[in-house]
Amino acid sequence: MAIEVRIPTILRTYTGGAKSVEGSGDTLADLLGDLDSRHQGLRDRLVDDAGLRRFVNVYLNDEDVRFLGGLQTPVTDGDTVTVLPAVAGGSR
Amino acid sequence: MRYDSLLDSLGGTPLVGLPRLSPTPDVRLWAKLEDRNPTGSVKDRAAFFMIEQAEKDGLLARGATILEPTSGNTGISLAMIAHLRGYRMICVMPENTSVERRQILQMYGAQIISSPAAGGSNEAVRMARRLAAEHPDWVMLYQYGNEANARAHYATTGPELLADLPGITHFVAGLGTTGTLMGVGRYLREQVPGVAIVAAEPRYGELVYGLRNVDEGFVPELYDASVLTTRFSVAANDALRRTRELLDAEGIFAGISTGAALHAALAMAAKARKAGQRADIAFIVADAGWKYLSTGAYSGTLEEAEERLEGQLWA
Predict the structure, then answer these.
(1) Is A91 within 8 Å of B313 when comparing Cβ atoms?
(2) Are residues B237 and B109 in the same domain?
């Protein structure tokens, strides 16, 4: 088992077009490091010196990691991580 | 109940218990029926407060033009009030929004300018800003950054909820402009120590996230993460399934965004039950299902409905 990471369309240039990739690690930061070893440049699109980029949302099993522990959020095998750009949304 | 006019009947909506969906007698769910507002959605509150404030500030005089990026409910609320008060209304709206919303807007005399489907509301906001710059005499109320939007909920929705449910432990609502969550959230945090404020954010199909790069994203100016306890991303299939469960179990015919809020509310209910804590969880029914019938969300199997929603702005 591994951790599934869903990648939004605009970042699939880093994953060879793959909609989701697998990785491992004890925390989100570890996981992103592991992904970056195979998909170089991906981490820089998600994270800057201050942490997660402003317009990037990352969800662990559908919950926003900013409310869990940010990059230090623990992750385990079988989890699903979803990366999405922040958008204005729908019926407002 | 008697009111002097339709607008005077704004707010004061029912809070109804959900005896069948509540997991135990100690962990209860409550639905705030915001479809019982003048034009049938929670957005009447924000629209009314934003227009009243603009009038107070001297921005709106008879014959003035209001411009707003909106894919539906806010536009309908603003168009109704504008129609009654003699303002012209222009909505900038993504082309992938339901036909019902367009027809209602046109009935209230609003003019619709379509923005490209790709990019969703981000693109509508961008286009409205451009139009506002070209027409300095038009008034853009800008729901995403207008403090009167959140204030409407601080002043009305929040106090209504606390009056009806003094033991409230959780408040759950959809996250869009963030006005409902910011306003109700701030009010409840002042009044109820330890209350949880939970956001349910709709997760759309890929078309909607069609940005050119991740630095072009959008976070509403009203958003203050410190008001929230947590935030869930709810996929279309979960929102659809819950929308149908709400109708099936409790008889409530709600819009699809309500299914997303219910999904998050049920997640909080499960957590409370597991922890052995009592909970009174209130969530917002933002509107009824009528405006979404043409999306196909209410017919056929869940899988069929989900397929039809792909690429649509369902909340």
Answers:
(1) yes
(2) no
